[in-house]
Amino acid sequence: xxxxxxxxxxxxxxxxxxxxxxxxxxxxxxxxxxxxxxxxxxxxxxxxxxxxxxxxxxxxxxxxxxxxxxxxxxxxxxxxxxxxxxxxxxxxxxxx
Length: 96
Prior knowledge:
Layout: H1 19-24, H2 28-31, H3 34-40, H4 60-67, H5 73-87
C-alpha cells in the first residue's frame, strides 16, 4: 500500500532517482567532454605503507607556507622532515 504513495521529494530541483533514471544513466566518459574529464583525472599520490597518522603542533607560519605551495603540501612537510632527520645523528631508542 505504501508503494501507491508518491515518493517524498525534499528538493524539487533534484528529486530522488528512480529505477528509470538509473537505467538511462551513462558513464561520464560517454557524455562529458575530454577537458571536463581531465579535470577529474588527477590521481592522488600513492600512500607510503610505512607512514603513520600523527598529531603534531606546528607554527602557523610553517603551515601557511606549506599550504601556499598547493596540493600535496603534507607530503612536502614529510619530505622536509625526512631531509632534516637525515642530516642529524639521532640516538637510537635502544641506546638509552
